[in-house]
Design goal:
- This protein is mainly beta.
- It has 1 helix and 14 strands.
- It has a 5-stranded antiparallel β-sheet with strand order 6-5-4-1-7, with helices on one face. Strands 13-12-11-8-14 form a 5-stranded antiparallel β-sheet, with no helix packed on it.
Amino acid sequence: MARLAVVFALLFAPFAAMADELTGSTNRNIGPVTKQPIPRFVSLKPSDTPMREGPSKDHRIRWIFKREGLPVEVIAEHEQWRRVRDSESTEGWVYFGRLSNRRTVIVLAGKDRPERDLFARESETSAIVARLQPGVIASVESCSADWCEVTLEGFRGFVKKNAVWGVYPEERVK
């Protein structure tokens, strides 16, 4: 009986791995194609990036991203396709050539007022460099436990991690 179980496991393991790739299962921590962490954040290279229902050009286009640099979260891989999720939780498949490892974040709306402050240092008592509107995309230079240093349109400063989408709460970026 034990031998039968081993044979069964060996025969069906490849199919289980393929199912994980196609369904976006995040039970694993390493992507089967890139050997990079899953999930992980990346950004869109060109504007007009189609998001498809499945991992091939034969699948219908669900959405077209119009913003270069938009952060997306890779949640699965299948051959040359990456299943991604955007800041509004929309999911679909994007061709790998349209993704960049450049780290960006998108500013989230605040509770009391929509804009978020960009500070000169990692302190809410430091000078405010700019006020960032929701939806603004910034390049990530680094992130500590609670802050990210970002650049955008001639500005450089620090924003609270919980004010942006595109980095994980526990993540540190160097």
